């Protein structure tokens, strides 16, 4: 029975985010705990009437407090580069590489001293937790990719395939060739290109190479993705015993719908989440 693209596309999801998608509080709290002692030492500067002298005393007794400072500026680095009218600096926060006066200047010019002495915040641990939470939001894109992979893997398991026995994660072309003695030069540009597939399922008669993705927002990348997978599908067709499966979803495809439909017309194993729910992976054992 011929599939209808419009009907298939109408089942695409807006989002697949779970409760863990938005913030990884385990990681956030762990990162803050690593510098909790040093943050508490710096807490003594809050409301200080002579903050530069107090900072100097702290730095002399507890130089390890330096490692906290980048986070207070929402920087994920142990070094911070600064240029001013006098010179260029690359401040190290693992070991003091400039004079105390230079570090005091850094604290004053970045307004960290102002924030502390004017009591704009009341606790650096709470403040650092807030910054870590903000920085963690930048990792949502990566978590989104893993969400789709995890979802697909759950359906692979439900179909009865066992990891590292019937299915494998993140296999490169050369790994597939070596493991099952199959020639994949048609999809590797005669061995010049190395590609990694998200999943590989091996049955008695077929090797299924699987790519997964989910797009909640559009962009030019989607058109390129669709075109590249269309080409890959055509190349795979020339190899006996190999089948390419692409599992994608997300309303971001609305902006590249026409290109997706072109691939849909030639790739019979282009699936979405609804197909997975309907047990499409169960049929692989019979191909």
In short:
The protein contains 13 helices and seven strands.
Structure, explained:
With 287 residues, the protein is an alpha/beta fold. It has two domains: 5-19 and 139-286, Trna Endonuclease, Chain: A, domain 1 (3-Layer(aba) Sandwich), CATH 3.40.1350; 25-138, no CATH class. The protein has helices at residues 5-9, 25-33, 36-42, 51-61, 69-72, 100-109, 112-117, 124-136, 140-158, 173-180, 220-236, 257-266, 273-277; strands at 79-83, 88-92, 167-172, 196-202, 207-214, 242-249, 270-271. The strands form two sheets. A five-stranded mixed β-sheet has the order 3-4-5-6-7, sandwiched between helices. A two-stranded antiparallel ribbon has the order 1-2. The chain is elongated. The chain starts with a helix and ends in a 10-residue tail after the last helix. The mean pLDDT is 93.
Poorly predicted sequence stretches spanning 5 or more consecutive residues: none
Q: Under CATH, the topology of the largest domain is which? A: Trna Endonuclease, Chain: A, domain 1
Overall 3D form? elongated
- The arrangement of helices and strands along the chain is HHHHHEEHHHHEHEEHEHEH
- Fraction of residues in H or I helices: 40-55%
Question: Main sheet?
Answer: 5 strands, mixed
User: For the largest beta sheet, what order do the strands appear in spatially?
Assistant: 3-4-5-6-7
* Structural class by SSE content: alpha/beta
* Mean pLDDT score: 93
Q: What's the gyration radius in Å? A: 27 Å
Assign the CATH architecture of the largest domain.
3-Layer(aba) Sandwich
End-to-end separation in angstroms reads 16 Å
Secondary structure tally: strands? 7
Number of helices: 13
The total domain count is: 2
**Can you tell me the CATH class of the largest domain?**
Alpha Beta
């Amino acid at each position: 029975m011929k599939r209808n693209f419009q009907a298939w596309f109408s089942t695409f999801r807006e989002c697949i985010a779970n409760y863990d998608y938005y913030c990884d509080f385990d990681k956030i709290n762990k990162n803050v705990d690593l510098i909790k002692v040093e943050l508490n030492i710096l807490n003594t500067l809050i409301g200080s009437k002579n903050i530069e002298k107090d900072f100097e005393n702290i730095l002399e007794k507890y130089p390890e407090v330096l490692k906290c400072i980048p986070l207070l500026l929402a920087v994920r680095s142990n070094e911070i580069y600064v240029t001013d009218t006098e010179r260029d600096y690359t401040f190290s926060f693992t070991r003091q590489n400039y004079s105390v006066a230079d570090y005091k200047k850094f604290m004053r010019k970045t307004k960290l001293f102002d924030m502390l002495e004017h009591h704009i915040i009341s606790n650096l641990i709470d403040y650092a937790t807030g910054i870590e939470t903000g920085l963690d939001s930048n990792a949502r894109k990566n978590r989104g990719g893993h969400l789709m992979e995890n979802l697909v893997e759950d359906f692979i398991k439900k179909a009865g395939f066992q990891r590292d026995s019937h299915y494998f994660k993140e296999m490169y072309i050369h790994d597939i060739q070596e493991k099952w003695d199959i020639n994949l030069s048609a999809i590797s540009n005669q061995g010049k290109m190395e590609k990694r597939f998200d999943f590989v399922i091996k049955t008695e008669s077929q090797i299924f190479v699987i790519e997964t993705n989910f797009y909640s927002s559009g962009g030019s990348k989607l058109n390129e993705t669709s075109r590249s997978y269309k080409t890959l599908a055509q190349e795979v067709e020339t190899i006996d015993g190999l089948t390419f499966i692409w599992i994608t979803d997300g309303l971001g495809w609305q902006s590249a719908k026409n290109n997706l439909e072109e691939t849909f017309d030639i790739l019979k194993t282009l699936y979405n989440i609804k197909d997975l729910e309907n047990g499409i992976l169960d049929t692989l054992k019979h191909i």
